[in-house]
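Bumping with the actual sequence this time:
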Amino acid sequence: MKSIALAPEEQEITIKVLKNYFHGYAFRDLYLNLSSIENSYGGEPIDIFKRIDEIDSATYGSTYEFYGEISRLVNSLHCSHTFFAIPCMYAFDYYLPIYFYIEQGQDGNNHAYLYPQHNFEALLPEPLVGAEVLYVNLDGSSTFTDTSPTAEQAIKIWADNEDQTSRNPYARWQYAHQHSFYYRSPGSYPQPNSEYIKIRVKIDEAVQDLDIPILVYANRDVTDLNDFCAVNDVYKEQPEPEPDPEPDPQKNYYRKSNTKKLTRSKTPQNTTTSPVNKKELAKQLKDLMKKNEKETLIKQKDRIDPLWRDRQKKLIEATKGIQQKSGSFGNRTVDLDYGLNPIQKRRIETPKKMSHNSKFNRSSAQPDKFKEKRTKKRTNEEEILIQPFAATSDRSVVGFHMPQYELGIIAITTFTPNDSDEFLETFFDIVNQLSDNKGSYFSKKLLIDMRHNGGGYASLPPAIT
């Protein structure tokens, strides 16, 4: 892909379309002078059009480098409404074959430990599994100092510079640590600055430096670049039209001499048409718009969180004992595989295995010396009771109760529910049950759980706050 040279026409058209889009971008002026107020999340000011001009004036070795700079600009906005898809790259994925398990130590500080990803165990020798990670250089530099970033800081640096997900730096870090730092598509993220990262680990008070390669995986066979990355027909060179043949005077003479005056009888036609059912037409149009919107949102959710379907299925299974409310929203079934195409289905297999095996790797692949060092045995453990008591049919909202802590939990897994009315009605029903001091689920404390929530309809968050 890096061998494809950037044509001047392609660069010119892309920059023109990009500027046209950002002229209508509602938030462009906010980025010129980002507020330093704490609840605004801060961030570096961005002059979007100045950056586009800088991208346009630079020299590139390939189209991928050019589109990567555009992607880096758009991602730096951290705007959930806007992302840039690099052409022809969605069949590929970047993999980091290790991950950092971060936990709080007995000293009160966070410590990171090294583990292999699923299917990449052979790349990490057993003595290094579970080793403490001291520093991480994302650019592959072999120079480490006391100010070099820790694993936790390196993920933050990468997320702030490269990830589009959220303006909230804490949400960005969580998403990067759970997913995008280790596994991401070149269609949404630019090429890494280095083909490997450099990390320093500590084993038995001795330090060792490791090169961790950034791998590329193809989700389909790429045999013909022209078929795989076809140019839009609008921009293809059209063949020159063949010139009209010279007229033959002799043929033209006979054509005129044999011309007869033709007459055609006109019969009155029935101009009566069946009446248009405007209500039915409006309903069909509304249904079509909802279908297109749903498919677009599903593609967006697949891009942000490839495992959302698997997570929702597990949540439905775990809360299947909940009695659905009687009425218009009761006993619904939800097709969570809707919109799942074969390529996306194949793409999610690896992160699913990575997620499934992460706890297994930490417990089974970890050498005994690390287990003994960090495992704290708990005595007289109490059984924690978590009661699910209300949920939407698609589990976009679920209510839980922890009686021993007098704690109510409202899990909001997405703001793109199958039915917004059901979402709101269920949310308010959960709130009423948790606040009813005579009810079974009365709680003095409330926790809103929005882990893995990829956003959605802008009208829903204000409605519940």
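The tokens above came from a reply further down the thread. The two ends are 47 Å apart (CA to CA).
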